[in-house]
Amino acid sequence: MDIMKELLTTSPLDGFEALIGGLIVVAIIILFIAIIIYIIEAIFLTKFHKLLYGKGTALAWIPFANIYLLGKLTFNKLIGWILLGATIVLGSSTTTTINGETIKHQLIPGGSGIMNIVRIGFWIYAIVKYIRIKNGEIPVEVARAQSDSSTFDALKKTPSQNNNMGNSVNNMQQNTMNNGMDTPQNMNSGVQQTPNATKYCTNCGAQLSADSAFCTSCGTKQG
Asked: What's the predicted TM-score (pTM) here?
């Protein structure tokens, strides 16, 4: 009975104030979570940039600039600009006035939701790439060259990589030649040098070659 009395005596104004208070609390909690996530993202981008370039960057803490930085570190500069442009375009909104009432709607319906999904994919890939670089699976100089690239070829090799590859090929060819082919020195060393066999005449004792059938001095047939 007491509960029923309280409900009956509660004015609509009190219920509206309670609803507004609850919404404010929820908004504060959401804002607090968003700030925490933003700080975590900025710290990660700072560490990622420091891993590649040896120093942090203020772009990690600037709105929209951090979106470009995410695309650059994950892929390259061109992808960073594309990601930033797509975020601005898909997140844009317009306002229209109908019967004196202003209505706000997105320029591209569902654009913000699409970009949120795309950014989540970028973050997952960025974390995986960061771990691979830390573990040595991707050389730092290779990842840095990729980030500095301004083309769609995110795996473009740097001149130093090409030189290293050329040196490796040359070393392999040299090893193959050394192992599979005998040099003149190796061929000479592998052949047993045997002196020419000689014999002597059984009659006069003259020195003859091993295949001589007759003595060249006395003509005696050799046995």
From this structure: 0.61
